[in-house]
């Protein structure tokens, strides 16, 4: 989140300032809200996928394979 937030301010300052002004926000607040919106959705989707039984089974197999000595 931190680096996405900083890139929104450093590299996209002009566009985030314009978009933020359209919604009555500073570029800092706009960058934070924008990044939380898409990173939050991505985090929720990732957690849901990791909780699916086939994924749990695959992760268990990887864990077993990683502890087997060759």
Descriptive overview:
The protein is mostly helical. Helices cover 83% and strands 0% of the residues. The longest helix has 24 residues, at 27-50. The protein is elongated. The N and C termini lie far apart (39 Å). The relative contact order is 0.10. The mean pLDDT is 84.
Helix/strand structural class: mainly alpha
What is the beta-strand fraction?
under 5%
Low-pLDDT segments: none
State Rg: 19 Å
Mean pLDDT: 84
Distance between the termini: 39 Å
Please state the overall shape, judged from the principal axes of the Cα atoms: elongated
Tell me the layout of helices and strands.
Blueprint: H1 2-10, H2 13-22, H3 27-50, H4 53-67
Helix pairs in contact: 1-3, 2-3
From the structure above, extract its key features.
elongated, mainly alpha, 70 residues, 4 helices
Short description:
This protein has 70 residues and is mostly helical. It has helices at residues 2-10, 13-22, 27-50, 53-67.
């Amino acid at each position: 989140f931190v680096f996405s937030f900083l890139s929104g301010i450093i590299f996209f300052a002009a566009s985030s300032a314009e978009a933020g002004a359209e919604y009555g926000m500073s570029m800092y607040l706009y960058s934070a809200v924008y990044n939380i919106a898409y990173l939050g959705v991505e985090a929720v989707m990732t957690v849901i996928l990791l909780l699916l039984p086939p994924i749990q089974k695959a992760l268990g197999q990887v864990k077993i394979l990683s502890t087997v000595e060759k």
